[in-house]
Amino acid sequence: MKNRFQHYSSQCIILLAVLFLSTCQYVQPPEKIHDGAEILWDTWGIPHIVARQDSDAFYAFGWAQMRSHGDLLLKLYAVARGRGAEFFGEDYLAADRSTRLLGIPNLAQEWYERQEADFKKNLAEFSTGINDFAQQHPELISDAVKAVLPVTPQDVIAHTTRVMTVFVAGISECGAVLPGFDFYDQPVASNGWALGANYSSSENTMLLVNPHLDWGGLETFYEAHIVLPEVNLYGAALVGSPVLQIAFNDHLGWTHTVNSLDGCDLYHLKLVSGVLDDGYWMDGVKQNFTVTTETIQIRQPDNSTESESFLIRRARQGPTINHEGQILAVRLALLETPLLTNMNQQWWKMGHAVNLDAFQKILQGGHLPLFNIIYADADKHIMLAFNGIIPIRGTGDTAFWRKPVTGDDSRLIWTETHSYHDLPKSIDPASGWVQNSNGAPWYMTMPFLDKARYPSNITTDVTNNRELRGLQMLSAHQRMSYAELAAAKHSTRALVADQLLDDLMAAAHASGEPSLQQAIEVLNHWDRQYLAESRGALLFSVWFEKWVERTIAKAIEVDADFVFLPEQLLGDLFYAQPFTPSEPLTSPRGLADVSLALSALHDAVNELQANANKLDMPWGDIARLRRNGVDLPGNGSSTELGVFREIVYEKDEDGKLKSSSGDSYIAIVEFSQPVRAQVLTTYGNATQDNIFKMNNQLQLTADQKLRPAWRTLKEIEGNLAMHEHLVLNSSISQERKPAAR
Question: Is Thylakoid included in the keywords of this UniProt record (predicted)?
């Protein structure tokens, strides 16, 4: 322990000693530090938590999340109990039913009892920090959520379990049948890169952290910094998590991207007589459902409550749901094993690891239910591991399991999951880099992995134009500098324009149609970017949307049973030359149906002119970064257009487009000495009104800039907005603003 403590920088030790003094002057040795925890709030609203022991840091992290996101956190915990409708009305009833159906509150109680003693204490302290803040600062949270209090450690586990279940269901066929467990039509996406010493210009490894999630609700990121005697940990977590889920320390760091794993299956049950009460068939033998009833309270507009008796039937495969007249059993791998019990503890341990061997040993526990893990360290190692709690299925490929399978064959009921060793990964590849932007794991580096080496039913074989754009940028460099990495991260070039625009303009010109000549002029001068000032981006976006719609409609005309899948966007339905793994940098390309594309362009021109939009309106005039009254010119666009800088916009009340998801928490980390890092939480680090003013991170988003990650005493002290000293197991909390300088 002593050697590891000495390995950390003297700045961390000084920070521990100094924080108890309002003048921030070092006048006493660290062994004289008082008990409790410190939170130094910087001008961006980032809590820098300093503590001597883990449990104190957990207490402070709960306290900090309440100060920044109290209303949101309590609402999320209520929904995780399956009691959202009880507190907030009927809009939450569907989510409550799914939460109860899957048994998440009961699993949370069971899994809390299974926690190791030290981590059980940490969870208890996290919830205590939440409750103490609410007790001492009732004026800072709304009356609507106070009834949710007090929060328990079981709530914390239920919430993190529900969040992961939503992710796994949402990327599989199960999301369509579980109300409240979809992603509300917002795609989950991310970019993650790790650059090795033989690819990095500085010969230091670098890490790109770039998750893309919805800008609200359970997908909201919270940026924080935790300093303990043995670790200086900086990163982000989804609100309500007791631990940082994406982070870096002085030795290593990691990020996550949502992977394309298949962790949930549906089974079409065959009822004995068409009546649920008579049971279902399994291997030719009649089976009875296990039946339980739960009562859900539903708050009415007049604040009275009504009760609903919710009947839950469970088959051998899992709980059942009536979906479009079919009785389906839902089987989620993360809920069918006890592995998820230690999910939060695994993330906490990952943040304390000091090298690749230790990090991989932690990953072997297999407690994280999904996500690719993209890793880099100060010892010059990089890694990408396709990770998750994935069933071992004895038969069938992904296409077979993507649809409901027959529920009367017990051989299809899997019971085991793949180990960490079974799953695709790449460590220190010859290319010098690993990457993922939500494609299949074989595309994590070049040359691509041999997918034949892995089970055919662990993931869909999918990539997307955003990932192909990333591969282009990585392949264009022999070595990449820190500045070039930052520029690549912010790239708004539309790969789809490079694939299709020349064909489209040539066809429009050849048509001789007068209404298309102005469009040709605009698109010919467009920079093929989605910058605020880019003229032609709007026209291309409207054309692309109509082109996709018309192409799908044409496919349905040919085959009434046609079902569009996102991966088909790169196929021969749209492109003359579809995506080919042997040509990842030049395919797909060319229009599959030129006349259809021209028709879509004609419609796009007419729509923009009818809405009084100029064909060459700057992108930022229509696409707006909007949040909490801030309204700024936007940049970036969607995965479908092949834009690496993903910001998704949706129609606002005034007819313009407002940012709704995409770039969320960003970090670019270089494992130099000392570690160099720039970060951003695009939409800001609080949804709660606060007692100190925070700088506007949305402006940095508009400017395509990041900010330094402050991890040393000098940096934090120079940007201090407020200082809190928390004394645990006491009603005492001191809040101090920095002394005038």
Answer: no
308: domain CATH number is 2.30.120.10
Asked if the structure places residue 668 within a domain, the reply is no
Q: Is 190 a catalytic residue?
A: yes
Q: Identity (one letter) of the amino acid at 105? A: P
Q: Indicate the pairing of strand 657-663 with strand 623-627.
A: parallel
Do residues 195 and 206 lie in contact, with contact meaning Cβ atoms separated by under 8 Å?
A: yes
Is the distance from CB of 205 to CB of 671 less than 8 angstroms?
Answer: yes
User: Is residue 45, in this structure, part of any structural domain at all?
Assistant: no
Side-chain-facing half-sphere of 183: CA atoms under 13 Å: 24
- Number of other CB atoms surrounding residue 89 within 10 Å: 14
Tokens 């041999």 sit on residue: 450
The rounded distance, in Å, linking the Cα atoms of 201 and 667 is 18
In b/e form, how buried is each residue of 705-724, taking b as 16+ CB within 10 angstroms? ebbebbbebeebbebbbbbb
Identify the residue whose tokens are 């059942």: 320
The amino acid sitting at 330 is: V
**Cα–Cα distance measured from residue 637 to residue 287, given in angstroms and rounded to the nearest whole number:** 51
For residue 280, give its domain range: 265-335
Q: Can you tell me the distance from the alpha carbon of 704 to that of 683, in angstroms, rounded to the nearest whole number?
A: 13
Backbone angles phi, psi at 492, to 5 degrees: -110, 10
The count of residues in the chain is 741
Q: Is 262 annotated as a binding residue?
A: yes
Neighbouring-strand partners of residue 253? 248, 376
| Per-residue pLDDT reduced to its tens digit, 389-442 | 999 999 999 999 999 999 999 999 999 999 999 999 999 999 999 999 999 999
CATH code of the domain in which 600 resides: 1.10.1400.10
Is the separation of the CB atoms in 301 and 440 below 8 Å?
no
- Name the catalytic one among 55, 68, 190, 431: 190
Residues β-bridged to residue 309: 295
In this predicted structure, the answer to whether residue 20 has a pLDDT above a threshold of 70 is no
